[in-house]
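We close this part of the discussion by returning to an individual protein. Part of our work consisted of pairing the sequence of a single chain with a tokenised description of its backbone. What the numbers capture is local backbone geometry rather than side-chain detail. The amino acid sequence and the backbone structure tokens for this protein are reproduced below.
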Amino acid sequence: MDLQFILAGLSPLLSGILLYEYKKQSAKNKIEDQMREQQHAALVGGVEALLRDRLLHGMEEGLANGYA
């Protein structure tokens, strides 16, 4: 009879542990995704700045050489 109570309590206990671990992993993944998005946005901003600089440099060089 005691074994039935133990077995009856084991399933909810294991379910609770699994749910806790799932939520913990989900929160960790969410933080990693946010960091990845921030890094991507910074990289895109850097590439845009480099392209803008090259465009302005080319335009200034063209004006200095009398192409425009």
In short: The longest helix spans residues 2-64. Helices lie at 2-64. The chain has a mean pLDDT of 94. The chain is about 95% helix and 0% strand.
